[in-house]
Amino acid sequence: MSARSRVAPAVDRLRAANPYAVDAALAALVLFAASLQWMFPDEGDDRLSWQGFLLGAGTAVPLVWRRRSPFGAACAVSVFTPAMAVHHAPPPDVLYGGLVVLYTLAAVAPPAQRRFMLVGWLVGTSMTMTHKEGAEPFEYAFHLLSCLSAYGFGMLARLQRAYTAALEDRARRLERERAADTARAAALERATIARDMHDILAHAVSLMVVQAEAGPVVVRSDPERAEAAFDAIATAGRDAMTQLRRILGVLKDAPVEGGSARLPQPGVDALDGLLRQVGDTAGLRVELRTNGEPRPLDADTEIAVYRVVQEALTNTVKHAYASRARVELLWGEAELTLTVTDDGQGPGGRGAGGGGGGDGGTTGHGLIGIRERAAACGGTARTGPGPGGGFRVAVTLPVAADRKAALG
């Protein structure tokens, strides 16, 4: 065990003790040390008198108040120490009380007080030694260096305390920043999950409503078509449940049903299946066009592409009264441009996510979600009437290599 590890517990206990009890013990120790020279006198030493004892006590007792009033205690010690030296009964061999007050002032007092007291003690010590009978040169150096050392140790204690306070303040700020970052990350995660659940449920419910509305019409005249409608409703529901499990899986540490790892969210490769589902369920003819060489996308951008197409087609089914839609992927060197257009009524009527109530209408949650997804990936989104009528959603997203630069 090192000396530091043995001393540290004692230092901690001392710091935790009552400060006035500690200072009272320190005053008693200083008085005892100042009295050693007459308790064990050398030949020729002055004998103790009761006046000398009182003056010696005056150099120690004020230390009890060194924390409450450091400058006042220092002034009291500064008066009694030279008086004790002049009285010579006994003269002080070591400035015990002076060393303590110099240390205390250097550690806690304002600059003017501690500098005034240091200069006063250096000048007073020099003058006292000058008038002392038989003072040796080394005694000047001893007393002056003792004062400077005590003051220096006090300044080191001040600097250490300031450094510790700065570290603690920095730790508190880092903790607050970490808590804020955690809160922001949690809010972002909640917003992402909310958008995903909105897109999944809106898409599935829209397809289910379309088929449910068509089912009663054909249930007697065309039983096979009615059966297909109910199958489509079941398929849309199962697909929605599967995707919800994927999303909710991120909220749990346990694996998804069956013990397997959580499945990845759908991306660009899943667009064909999405378009087939919309075509089979809603009767909307959807065409997928791809231009350029596909480039790698990170996971968030992959999900964003799928969800944007899903939301745009959901709004087309719900609001546009369209017969066909087209999804285009234009791969560039640094970005992917995704465009979804339909031949419906457009924003002047009930276009894809445009007017007339519903999800894409008055509240506009669908279009807001599309813009938020694009912004989260460092891209942009534009919506409005298509060049040949209908409604158009155009989203530009950076490829994986340029996403960091896009997010800035």
CATH topological fold name of the largest domain: Heat Shock Protein 90
Protein structure class = alpha+beta
Number of strands: 5
Order of strands side by side in the largest beta sheet?
1-2-3-5-4
In the residues, how many domains can be counted?
2
Strand portion: 5-15%
The string of secondary-structure elements, in order, is HHHHHHHHHEHEEHEEH
Radius of gyration equals: 43 Å
Q: Give the name of the CATH architecture of the largest domain.
A: 2-Layer Sandwich
List segments where confidence is low: pLDDT < 50 over at least 5 consecutive residues.
Answer: 253-263, 350-363
The first-level CATH class name of the largest domain: Alpha Beta
- Describe the sheet with the most strands: 5 strands, mixed
> First CA to last CA: what distance?
52 Å
CATH homologous superfamily title of the largest domain:
Histidine kinase-like ATPase, C-terminal domain
SS field, number of helical segments: 12
Q: What shape does the CA trace take?
A: rod-shaped
Mean pLDDT: 77
Bin the helical content: 55-70%
Transmembrane segments: 20-41, 47-64, 94-112
Organism: Streptomyces fructofermentans
Catalytic activity: ATP + protein L-histidine = ADP + protein N-phospho-L-histidine
Coiled coil: 164-191
Could you describe the 3D structure shown?
Mean pLDDT is 77; it is low at 253-263 and 350-363. The chain has 2 domains: 3-135, no CATH class; 180-407, Heat Shock Protein 90 (2-Layer Sandwich), CATH 3.30.565.10. The radius of gyration is 43 Å and the shape is rod-shaped. It has 12 helices and 5 strands. It has a 5-stranded mixed beta sheet with strand order 1-2-3-5-4, with helices on one face. The chain has helices spanning 3-16, 19-39, 50-58, 70-87, 96-108, 111-131, 137-218, 223-249, 271-282, 299-320, 365-376, 403-407; strands at residues 285-291, 324-331, 335-342, 380-385, 391-398. β2 (324-331) and β3 form a beta hairpin.
